[in-house]
Design a protein that fits this description.
The chain is an alpha/beta fold. It is built from 17 helices and 26 strands. The protein has three domains: about 280 residues, Ribonuclease Z/Hydroxyacylglutathione hydrolase-like (Metallo-beta-lactamase, Chain A, 4-Layer Sandwich); about 150 residues, Metallo-hydrolase/oxidoreductase (Rossmann fold, 3-Layer(aba) Sandwich), CATH 3.40.50.10710; about 90 residues, Ubiquitin-like (UB roll), CATH 3.10.20.580. Bound molecules: zinc ion (ZN) (2 copies).
C-alpha cells in the first residue's frame, strides 16, 4: 500500500532536467558470454567488462563473437575508462579488439590485470596498453561524473569484484559474477557489510547475474570440494590427474594442498595452467612447499602413488593437456592403468559431447574417472536462488535488471525479484543494444537501440562475416554445392558445347548422372529461348534469374537446395 502511494507522488512530480544516466547492455543479455555494459552520464561514459562468446553449432567457421563497439565509436570522446569485474573470458576476452581501437584506461584488480596482460601479450599482432591501472576491492575512485566502488565477492576466480557506480541521478549496483561463500578457502567471504551499506544509501538499479537463477538453494562452498578431494586421494593407489579451469586459483591451491597432505608431488600441465600458476604465484596467492612442484622431466623418477597431475582440458578441448594424455599424444606421459582422473569442473552446455569423448577414452585406457555428477568435486562460482535473494534484500533496489544469462535464467531471476516485492513495472528484462535511461525523478525510459548483435570473428579479421556468409556456410554444409560452367559463342549468341555441371556434397554419385543431364538440358532450353528472343546470352546467363531457374530444377528433382554457382565464359 505504502509503495503505491509513493509512486503516485512521484509520477506527479515528474520533471525532465536532461541529466539522465544511460545504461546500455552491449552483451550478456539473453545469452551466456560477451558481457559488456555501457554507463553514460552527461559527457562521461564508462564501460563494465568486455567479454567474448563462443559460437554455437549454427555458426560454422566462426572462432569467437565479440560485442559490437558501434556505440563506443559514436561516443569516442566521452569514454573515460573500462572497469573489469574479473578475469574470465566472457568478461575480458574482447579487450584486445577494444584496445586496438580505443586507447582508454582499463581498471582491474591484481589477478584480473595479470590475466589481461597475458591475453594482450598472446594476441597477434601484440596489443599494448600503457593505461592499465590496478585497483583493489575496497577502493573507491571518481572517473568523470561517476563515483566508483569496488566490492570484494566470491567467485571461481581470485579478485572478482562487484562495482557500485554513483551519479547525481543515483547508484547502480553491478554484481558481476558472484556467489556467497561463507567458508571460502584462502580469501574472505563476500563483503556483505559493504553491500548492505550501499543498499542503505539507496540503490537506483541493481544489475545482477543470473547464471544459476534456475537453481534453488545455495551454491556449494569451495571448501566442500577440498573434502571430496581428500576422500578420493585417500582411496587412489596410482597417479591422480585433476583437470579444472586453469583460472580457478582456489581450486589449484586445494589440489596442491591435498597433494601435500598425502605426500604427493604436483606436475602442472598445459600452457594456460602454467600461465595462471605463475601469475598467481607472483601475487603471492598460492602457498606450498617449493619441493611439491615437480617438472615434467622428473616424472619417471617418482612412483605413481606420489604423483598428482594438474591439467587443463576439463571441457574436452582437443589441444588441452587432458585430451593429449587421453589420446596418448603427449610427448612425456600418457594415461595408464590405475590412474584416477578427476574432472573438477562443470560441463559448459555445448561441450558435453567433447567431454564424454575424452571420458570414454580415459576409461578405455584403464583410468578411473570421477566427474561432477558422481561426487562433489566441483563447486559452481555462481549464486543460486537464496544468494540472489540475499543481494536483492541487501541492496533494496528501485529497479531490478537481471543480466548474464539466457532468457530463461533472466526470467527466473525476474520472478524471484517479483516474489520479493519489486513491482513488475520496475523489473526490466533487457536485451543487448537497448538504451535504458534513468532520470533524476527516478523514472525509467527506453530511448532507443544501438547495435547489439555482436561481431563474428573469423580468423583474425573483424566483422568480415555477416549473416549471409553464415547462411551460405550452413547451406554448403547441409545441402552441398552445384556449379554450372557455360561456354558461349558470343558472335552467334549460342552455347558452345554442353554446359559442365559439377557437384559436391549434394546427392549420391549414382544419381548424379541423371541430375546432371537434366540440368544440362534445362540450361540448353533456357539458352534456346533467349536465342529465339534475340536476348544476349552472356548477360542473362549470369543473372540471378538464371540461378533461380537452375535452383528450381534441382529442387524439383531432388527436394534439396544446394548453393548454385554459375560461371559463363564467352569465346
Ligand atoms: Zn566469471
Ligand atoms: Zn561470466
Amino acid at each position: 500500500m505504502s509503495r503505491k502511494k509513493k509512486e503516485e507522488i512521484e509520477s506527479t512530480s515528474k520533471k525532465n532536467t536532461g541529466q539522465n544516466i544511460r545504461v546500455i547492455p552491449l552483451g550478456g543479455m539473453r545469452e551466456i558470454g560477451k558481457n559488456m555494459t555501457v554507463f553514460e552520464y552527461g559527457d562521461d561514459l564508462i564501460v563494465i567488462d568486455c567479454g567474448m562468446a563462443f559460437p554455437d553449432t549454427r555458426m560454422p567457421g566462426i572462432d569467437i563473437i565479440i560485442p559490437d563497439f558501434h556505440y563506443l565509436r559514436e561516443n569516442r570522446d566521452k569514454i573515460r575508462g573500462i572497469l573489469i569485474t574479473h578475469g574470465h573470458e566472457d568478461h575480458i576476452g574482447a579487450l584486445p579488439w577494444l584496445l586496438k581501437e580505443f586507447d582508454v584506461p582499463v581498471y582491474a584488480t591484481p589477478m584480473t590485470m595479470k590475466l589481461i596482460e597475458i591475453k594482450l601479450e598472446n594476441t597477434r599482432p601484440k596489443v599494448e596498453s600503457k593505461k592499465l591501472q590496478v585497483v583493489r576491492a575496497g577502493d573507491s575512485l571518481s572517473i568523470g561524473a561517476f563515483g566508483i566502488e569496488f566490492i570484494h565477492v566470491n567467485h571461481s576466480i581470485a579478485d572478482a569484484v562487484s562495482i557500485a557506480l554513483t551519479t547525481p541521478v543515483g547508484t547502480v549496483f553491478f554484481t558481476g559474477d558472484f556467489k556467497i561463500d561463507y567458508t571460502p578457502t584462502t580469501v574472505d567471504p563476500i563483503d556483505l557489510g559493504k553491500i548492505a551499506e550501499i543498499g542503505n544509501r539507496g540503490v537506483l538499479a541493481l544489475i545482477s547475474e543470473s547464471t544459476n537463477a534456475e537453481r534453488p538453494g545455495h551454491s556449494l562452498s569451495e571448501r566442500e570440494v577440498g573434502k571430496a578431494f581428500k576422500d578420493i586421494f585417500s582411496e587412489a593407489a596410482g597417479r591422480i590427474i585433476v583437470a579444472t579451469f586453469s583460472s580457478n586459483v582456489f581450486r589449484l591451491q586445494q589440489v596442491i594442498s591435498t597433494a601435500e597432505s598425502f605426500g604427493r608431488k604436483v606436475l602442472i600441465l598445459g600452457r594456460s595452467m602454467l600461465n595462471v600458476f605463475e601469475a598467481a604465484n607472483s601475487l603471492g596467492y598460492l602457498s606450498y612447499q617449493p619441493s611439491t612442484i615437480m617438472d615434467i622431466q622428473s616424472i619417471d623418477s617418482f612412483p605413481a602413488e606420489e604423483i598428482v597431475i594438474l591439467a587443463t582440458g576439463s571441457q574436452g578441448e582437443p589441444m588441452s593437456a587432458l585430451s593429449r594424455l587421453a589420446y596418448s599424444e603427449h610427448r612425456s606421459t600418457e594415461i595408464m592403468e590405475g590412474d584416477t582422473v578427476i574432472l573438477s569442473s562443470s560441463m559448459i552446455p555445448g561441450n558435453e559431447e567433447a567431454i564424454y569423448r575424452v571420458v570414454n577414452e580415459l576409461f578405455m585406457k584403464g583410468a578411473q574417472v570421477i566427474y561432477e555428477s558422481l561426487s562433489e568435486v566441483h563447486a559452481s562460482g555462481h549464486a543460486c536462488q537464496d544468494e540472489l535473494k540475499q543481494i536483492l534484500t541487501l541492496t533494496k533496489p528501485r529497479y531490478f535488471i537481471p543480466s548474464h544469462g539466457e532468457f530463461r535464467m533472466l526470467y527466473r531471476h525476474a520472478e524471484l525479484a517479483s516474489k520479493m516485492g519489486i513491482p513488475n513495472e520496475r523489473i526490466v528484462l533487457s536485451k543487448n543494444g537497448e538504451i535504458l535511461e534513468f532520470s533524476e525523478d527516478g523514472s525509467l525510459n527506453f530511448t532507443g537501440y544501438t547495435e547489439g548483435a555482436g561481431i563474428l570473428i573469423d580468423g583474425s579479421g573483424m566483422g568480415d562475416v555477416d549473416e549471409y556468409v553464415l547462411n551460405d556456410r550452413l547451406r554448403l554444409a547441409d545441402e552441398g554445392v552445384v556449379s554450372v560452367t557455360i561456354v558461349i559463342d558470343a558472335q552467334v549468341n549460342r552455347l558452345y558445347g554442353d554446359p559442365v555441371v559439377q557437384a559436391k556434397g549434394f546427392i549420391y554419385e549414382s544419381e548424379m548422372k541423371h541430375v546432371i543431364e537434366l540440368c544440362q538440358e534445362r540450361v540448353k532450353e533456357i539458352a534456346g529461348e533467349l536465342w529465339s528472343k534475340k536476348k544476349p546470352l552472356g548477360a542473362h546467363m549470369t543473372s540471378d534469374d538464371m540461378k533461380d531457374k537452375i535452383q528450381k530444377t534441382l529442387f524439383e528433382l531432388t527436394r534439396r537446395r544446394p548453393v548454385v554457382m554459375v560461371a559463363v565464359v564467352a569465346i
